[in-house]
Amino acid sequence: MPKRGGNISLTSYDDIFETDESRAESQLERVQSIRLSVLVPFKEHPFKVVDDEAMLRTTESIAQYGVLTPLIARPLEDGSYEIISGHRRAHAAELAGLTEVPVLVRRMDDDAATVLMVDSNLQRENILPSERAYAYKMKNEAMKRQAGRPPKENGGQLDHNLFGRKTVEVIAGESGDSVKQVQRFIRLTYLTPEVLDMVDQKQISFNPAVELSYLKAEEQEMFIQAMDEVQAAPSLSQAQRLKKLSQEGGFTLNAAREIMNEVKKGDLERVTFRNEQLRKYFPRSYTTQQMQNTILKLLDQWQKKKGRDQER
């Protein structure tokens, strides 16, 4: 006759005192297969996900090999998962027809998640000025909040070296940009979306854009109107004078138009065209150098024809 209770196993000390939360935590910190339908973008994600050639290559790679590097996401109360790292991979996976992707699920507070989101995306090769500007701003604000809390409340997620140091100094050290450059990028976030888009499109240079960021929103609208009228981008000197006008309370459309209408020293020696003005006349595959060579060749033919016409 078998002994009663002979197969009863004793519960370990750790199992007795392990909480439901700690059990859940141990289950979450691992790579899981998560449905794309429950993955949501990071709130106010500053990095654009566009269907360009790089996205096409990523989609083709994922279609052939799958997602090789897991995404990082954190669980939300509604059962969804907020992507911290891997927005492009998630989009490419969707384009490739996948329904699930590997995800490292990690519990993180808002500020720690923001810092990780920025750091993981700043590793990309091609980053627009607007993306870097808002990334630095979000990381700076998150680190300031972390630095304002005692180390225990930061859960060990914040480098102790931050305390007593300015957050922009830490960002500069980690990014490779100088402290001044980090501050200048953050200044770009004060530009209106329309002006900032011109910076991304290289219609306005970085240094003048920093100066223009000190203009009020309505003044930036007047600046755009003046820029459109004169069909010229501002030089650094012009942008600085526009900033001074704003600070002195003398900014008007006429004043902006007068400054923007000045002939720059370099303009006396060269003729320039915007890329989009010429692009419609050439195949998409043409490089800038090919367009320039074609234009010069056509001008040479035009000059020879003009000479022949004059001889008649």
Automatic annotation (TrEMBL):
GO biological process, one term: chromosome segregation
Alphabetized GO MF terms: DNA binding
Domain ParB-like N-terminal: 32-122
GO cellular component, one term: chromosome
PANTHER family: CHROMOSOME-PARTITIONING PROTEIN PARB-RELATED (PTHR33375:SF1)
The family this protein is said to belong to: Belongs to the ParB family.
Protein known as: ParB-like partition protein
Highest classification ranks of the organism: Bacteria, Bacillati, Bacillota, Clostridia, Lachnospirales
